[in-house]
Amino acid sequence: MFTLVELKTATKNFRPESVIGEGGFGQVFKGWVDEKTLAPSRAGVGIPVAVKKSNPDSEQGLHEWQCEVRFLGKFHHPNLVKLLGYCWEENQFLLVYEYLPKGSLENHLFSKGAEALPWDTRLKIAIEAAQGLTFLHNSEKSVIYRDFKASNILLDSNFHAKLSDFGLAKNGPINGFSHVTTRVMGTQGYAAPEYMATGHLYVRSDVYGFGVVLLELLTGLRALDPNRPSAQQNLVEWAKPGLNQKKKVQKMMDPRLEQKYPLLAVTKTAELILRCLEADPKNRPPMDDVLRELEVVRTIRDQPQEERRKRSSGPDTNRVRGNDSPYGRRTGRTG
């Protein structure tokens, strides 16, 4: 438990230059605390922390604060962000987490000028995020994360992935029920269709969101982007029909990967995405299976030199431009 005075000291009184993130709940500030005692310290002394300060006027902010304290206070896993403490004082709701210096996966995939993540790093992030989600699903109460998206996957200095923001997490169904019914609160583009349509939330509703993020890792494109041509604004709708066709998968790959990936690994990943995006949650694989399959994909190395030469001497199918490709509309990407 932190006091408000301590957190003001740690963040230089919540100065604007300390802000490292923002959302509907409020703002996230970078602060500094003593590594052993967690007492507030001067900038650059001790260890950095992330302090999430909820908007005091937001009823949803209070609800999400309670959710985070309840779930992150109870669960500990290498692929879940660590909650170091919290504060509830003067109508202010604050959470203190470990600081993850590489920021979110969203920033690395979509921010202008961001350095391209190589294939192996993308796969490692997917596997570690899958480990975090699998842990939640297999916990005693089958926790449903409910907001799996690229901005909620945070990265440490070695690109280890950790799930953050448990404000929408929910205990899964009990007594033989297949789903829980709840107010629709997820993020459009990532939320499963059955949940958006009915409010019925299944454990495998999370699997759909995982499939969307896996597709973003493959293509380097956002789940929803109003700046793309109308037929391509919804990534799932645009990409899904081609995910079982090797040539179409190659064409939709992120050009910043520069074809530096094992083609078999990519086609296997595309097949897995297709299963994660099944319309009926019963037909989606459980996260245990998804994780196992990704571990197998990680063992697939590049094809022999001769086969690679054949591929590179053919037409450059990976850099299609024009009306059938959304990449021509992107700017500020590094190659």
Automatic annotation (TrEMBL):
The EC number(s) this enzyme carries: 2.7.11.1
Record's keyword terms, sorted: ATP-binding, Cell membrane, Kinase, Membrane, Nucleotide-binding, Serine/threonine-protein kinase, Transferase
Pfam families given in the database record: PK_Tyr_Ser-Thr
Residues that hold ATP according to the record: 53
Gene Ontology CC, one term: plasma membrane
UniProt region (Disordered), positions on chain: 299-335
UniProt-recorded Gene Ontology molecular function terms: ATP binding; protein serine/threonine kinase activity
Superkingdom of origin organism: Eukaryota
Domain called Protein kinase: residue spans: 14-297
Compositional bias segments (type: Basic and acidic residues): 299-309
Family in the record: Belongs to the protein kinase superfamily. Ser/Thr protein kinase family.
Function: May be involved in plant defense signaling.
Protein name as it appears in the record: non-specific serine/threonine protein kinase
